[in-house]
Specification:
single chain; 221 residues; alpha/beta; Rossmann fold; five-stranded parallel β-sheet; three-stranded antiparallel β-sheet
Length: 221
Amino acid sequence: MMKERLTIAMDGPAGSGKSTIAQRLAERLDYLYLNSGSMYRAMTLLSIQEGGTPTNVSMLIELAKNCRIDFLDNGKITLLNGEDVSAALRTPEIDRAIINIAKVPEIRHEMVKQQRRIGESGGIIVEGRDVTTVVFPDADLKFYINASVEERAKRRYAEQKAKGIETTLEQVEKEIRSRDQMDESREHSPLRTAEDAIIVDTTSMTINQAVDFVLNRVEES
């Protein structure tokens, strides 16, 4: 029998399906959904809006300390200082710039504080790249969602094409491989698999199959 109000953490690389899985799982369980990647995307958007540059780290840190990020409608809406910025977060410009934000330790520290603020009462699905190892190392359940680079590139390419973003499958795959390398080699809070995480390879799974698999593990807990 599942305990009430669990804290469930999911990590995994770009395009693995973790966002969709986490969001649908939250809907099924009536939990809060927190996308940590959207926090860094919102922070990246803020830095662009305020004219921040990768070299002006002190300015970026001050922006991180003084902003507030929240989520509504099961994570579909991201609020940055009370403003809905959801539509502006999934663009190639943000994709390219986010690494300069995510690699700054002081910014990560501030984002972790916000994630813990949102998740302090449990009953939450949190997903990102370091939530099982850094943000919620004591989560009730941890999952590492993965898929082959080729499959992840196909998914991201289809997503961008549907939004009218001009790109190629080859370019998307190159960007994913580059992002993987940066995430895994990042000095602070690198992407890695927690020792007690349940590994879910979604390469040959439909989203529904992956959600059912994870939900079964949650219900067994």
